[in-house]
Design the sequence.
């Protein structure tokens, strides 16, 4: 008898009909004899509705009360799913975060789980009940309701799976798994049966958003096997595992891209100690996150410095950098916000040489000019002109034969 | 420094604007230096919206889950009011029933309060905070969320007032107090400054619904001084007190009426022991509540038996009584569902003779025929043809000079 934690997001429980469909899915799994904990988000739109109400009352709503307010969203869905399951003859019981109880610190609206009391859940599971838990919420040591922030339901599911030592944690979404790249860009994109946590982290942070990064990190830390599946269809989805040996032995697993970046360069910076921090300090002070950083020595006395930021922060970053340029007596600021970052990700590149040159050749063959390069142990990223996005992704997808099942094509 | 419990119903918190208005009212009271606990219902319409969702999922929703679902309604309003108060610079903190904690038995959807832990509330009050509590809900000994049933927010307010030994419990509604009768029937109806609990119970059960009967009974039991006031205007409202001596020394305090009754008579019943139970037993078995009962001996061997039921139960009661009539070998069944019950209520009638005859004379002067009479210690009720409702109420209102202030007109 296996123990599973299933998590369904807001779209999956967005209407009475969909809640009933989730109940059918859960009942079918329960009928197989497995023990099931189901974690739910609020109905899609509900969190926004409640936030709007709060904003009408208070421009900057008190965070403690915001948590009291928002936590009602999941309380509604767990009650309704529990009813729907019992209507199907499947014994079920709902729990709020406080009831479980899922203890957190007191950082309202973005609390962190500190402890889960699994006694009630285990008793219900052993009594043959499906346990339905409100995601996204917990309770602090003083009994205050807390929430884990957006995407917190994934975290709840992973934390429960860790506490219960569940066999797998299933994250049901509107996609049927993790793909080698975005199928809207490359129709030959293939669903991966397995992917490592490290690869998933790189894929998520690079824009192939399937799961919240925090929940993936959390799952990796506690060795929780995550599986991404579709709420709306059958299929095995993609297993995200911490066992590298279990994964398909491909050179790379996928191609991620990010269209939200902009590039800024400051040239002719005096090459003295502390120049980098003088350039990036004011950017960080303005709460602008920096992604890639490259520093080239132009000549003996000066250096060029390039970095990328989110496009939303582009104008602000440009203003700050222009000031810094004057203060440092540097040459000039040049910018480009019509760029994309394309990355190949795979644990396979650890043990295979020549991946980078294969990547650069594939891009060169299509006459795609590379503007920046950054590498990590399992990822190589390049920045190219945004007009080349589709071409670059498809060229790399073909070069690394991602459309083919590696179990068949490789020895 | 006085301690008050304020309760606002669903209409009073039915929109963001109204919640802000409630916050202004509460802040004004807090600024006077009093300690305040505010009990809220769900926004008007919200309980129905949630019930509709549940009914779409399950024809007869599981009561435990219904309570989880419905309790979110008050959780939303307490969060929003707490925000609104803090926006006005008034320190405030919200509590769900579980958080307080308001302990109840495990009778879901109509639980009874068994214990209130006032430690957190008292600590907050002593720290100068307004405490905002979700009405209608509690928690059982196993940590399950319970609700007290419709009107339960009044009960929450009274129970908190009793636990905190509050000076007064203010019930804010859409009327500005208890009137001598319904002002829509008698424009000269006068707001009462005070009324006893006993009178209030008789007025409520007779159709002048201002408060839930259960909360009035509860208030009487625990000597909680209730005051009924308007959410939407200023004024002192009506104090409902258990001290008979405090009340205006009028003969009667008010005139209640009930348009929802129907009368059934069975004639020629053999006058033998057990006849009454043979007649009323099957009616009670069908869960039909009986209001007035009159038995007249018609001759030596037979008796006539008349009773009233709610109009909704009229057809069912008539069918049952027709069967009973055959079984008992009684004469016939006659019915009348175009009747109203009009009652005069007042603790003053205990110490004054001649009230009944004054009432009957006032009706006779208007040629109103009395079909049934029933009396209790502080109430006399008559059943008359429904077309005489307004005439009867106005005649009695004038006869007992209810439009005049008794402190001025009586010695």
Sequence:
């Amino acid at each position: 008898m296996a123990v599973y934690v299933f998590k369904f997001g807001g779209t999956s429980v967005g209407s009475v009909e969909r809640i009933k469909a989730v109940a059918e899915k859960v009942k079918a799994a329960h009928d197989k004899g497995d023990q099931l904990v189901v974690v739910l988000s609020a109905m899609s739109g509900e969190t926004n509705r409640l936030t709007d109400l709060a904003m009408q009352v208070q421009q900057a709503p008190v965070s403690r009360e915001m948590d009291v307010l928002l936590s009602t969203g999941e309380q509604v869905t767990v009650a309704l799913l529990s009813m729907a399951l019992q209507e199907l003859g499947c014994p079920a019981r709902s729990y709020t975060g406080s009831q479980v109880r899922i203890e957190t610190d007191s950082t309202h609206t973005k609390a962190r789980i500190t402890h889960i009391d699994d006694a009630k859940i285990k008793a219900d599971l052993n009594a043959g009940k499906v346990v339905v838990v409100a995601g996204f919420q917990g309770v602090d040591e003083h009994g205050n309701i807390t929430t884990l922030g957006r995407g917190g339901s994934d975290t709840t599911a992973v934390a429960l799976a860790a506490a219960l030592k569940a066999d797998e944690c299933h994250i049901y979404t509107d996609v049927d798994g993790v793909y080698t790249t975005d199928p809207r860009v490359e129709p030959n994109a293939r669903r991966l049966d397995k992917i490592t946590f490290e690869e998933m982290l790189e894929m998520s942070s690079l824009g192939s958003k399937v799961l919240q990064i925090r929940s993936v990190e959390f799952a990796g830390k506690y060795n929780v096997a995550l599986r991404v599946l579709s709420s709306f269809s059958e299929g095995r989805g993609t297993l995200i595992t911490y066992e590298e040996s279990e994964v398909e032995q491909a050179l790379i697993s996928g191609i991620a891209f990010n269209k939200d970046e902009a590039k800024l360069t400051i040239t002719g910076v005096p090459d003295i100690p502390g120049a980098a921090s003088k350039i990036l300090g004011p950017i960080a002070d303005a709460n602008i996150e920096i992604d890639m950083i490259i520093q080239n020595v132009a000549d003996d006395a000066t250096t060029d410095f390039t970095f990328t930021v989110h496009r939303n922060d582009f104008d602000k970053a440009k203003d700050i950098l222009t000031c810094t340029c004057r203060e440092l007596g540097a040459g000039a600021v040049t910018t480009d916000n019509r760029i994309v970052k394309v990355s190949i990700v795979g644990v396979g590149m650890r043990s295979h040489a020549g991946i980078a040159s294969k990547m650069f050749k594939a891009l060169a063959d299509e006459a795609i000019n590379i503007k920046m390069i950054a590498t990590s142990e399992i990822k190589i990223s390049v920045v190219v002109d945004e007009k080349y996005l589709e071409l670059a992704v498809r060229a790399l997808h073909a070069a690394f034969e991602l459309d083919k099942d590696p179990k068949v094509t490789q020895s």
Observations:
- The interface with chain A takes residues 16, 19-20, 50, 53-54, 56-59, 61-62, 64-66, 68-69, 71-72, 75-76, 78-80, 82-84, 86-87, 93-94, 96, 98-99, 120, 143-145 of chain B (CB under 8 Å).
- The mean pLDDT of chain B is 90.
- The CA atoms of residues 126 and 365 of chain B lie 61 Å apart.
- The two ends of chain B are 35 Å apart (CA to CA).
